Automatic annotation (TrEMBL), chain B:
It is a multi-pass membrane protein. Keywords: Cytoplasmic vesicle, Endoplasmic reticulum, ER-Golgi transport, Membrane, Protein transport, Receptor, Transmembrane, Transmembrane helix, Transport. This is ER lumen protein-retaining receptor. The keyword Transport applies. One of its GO terms (biological process) is protein retention in ER lumen. It comes from the Eukaryota. PANTHER family: ER LUMEN PROTEIN RETAINING RECEPTOR. It is found in: Cytoplasmic vesicle, COPI-coated vesicle membrane; Endoplasmic reticulum membrane.
């Protein structure tokens, strides 16, 4: 899912 | 979240706030590169594109921080290119931004962790951020000086990614987490500030102004 692509750093 | 990343993000927020205050209080963007600010705005939009794709409720600080970064950088560009356009030093802000955007985009398509839209946009944003400060440093070298407040902005801006490097060392050691692309780009980005850091520490800290040998 695309959300797991989101990096956990800014 | 570790102390290095926390202080890195705080330093980044401080940089954005210092620049906004400088432009707003002096009602002038003299000595500020509009191109660098545009590049930063592009970095934030391409990096936080997830905010636009699924508007999940603002339940965590990350989302709020992302929104602050995007809105503050767009507002800064508005101040430079519209509100205080008359004070924008276009002649000295002459580095070709395309020479930074095109290679960053090309490299993002070649070197990335996954060839899909979100990942490539994120990689492009990382590569672009590494070189986004160059028009600002170029402008200072052309004008031969930097206002003290602009030096503080640059110090905070440079410190943010330097602190992120410490964060990556910490995460490698304690969480065995490694993101090679972000680390390499972050190191390049921080190296670009070394010359400025030297001038800042030897001059501005002693209350002198940064004046580059013309």
């Amino acid at each position: 899912d695309i959300m797991d692509e989101i990096k956990d750093e800014l | 979240m570790n102390i290095f990343r926390l202080f890195g993000d705080l330093s980044h927020l401080a940089a954005i706030a210092i620049l906004l205050l400088k432009i707003w209080k002096t009602r002038s963007c003299a000595g500020v590169s509009g191109k660098t600010q545009l590049l930063f705005a592009v970095c934030f939009i391409t990096r936080y594109i997830d905010l636009f794709l699924h508007f999940v409720s603002l339940y965590n600080t990350e989302k709020v921080m992302k929104l602050i970064y995007i809105s503050a950088s767009v507002f800064t560009c508005y101040l430079i290119f519209f509100k205080f356009k008359a004070t924008y030093d276009g002649n000295h802000d002459s580095m070709r931004a395309e020479f930074l955007i095109v290679p960053a985009a090309g490299l993002a398509c070649l070197i990335n962790t996954k060839f899909d839209a979100i990942e490539i946009l994120w990689t492009f944003s990382i590569y672009l951020e590494a070189v986004a400060i160059l028009p600002q440093l170029f402008l200072i070298s052309k004008t031969g000086e930097a206002e003290t407040i602009t030096s503080h902005y640059l110090f905070a801006q440079g410190s943010y990614r330097a602190l992120y490097i410490l964060n990556w060392i910490y995460r490698y050691h304690y969480e065995s987490h490694v993101d090679t692309i972000a680390i390499v780009a972050g190191v390049v980005q921080t190296i670009l500030y070394c010359d400025f850091f030297y001038l800042y520490i030897t001059k501005v800290v002693k209350g002198q102004k940064i004046v580059l040998p013309a």
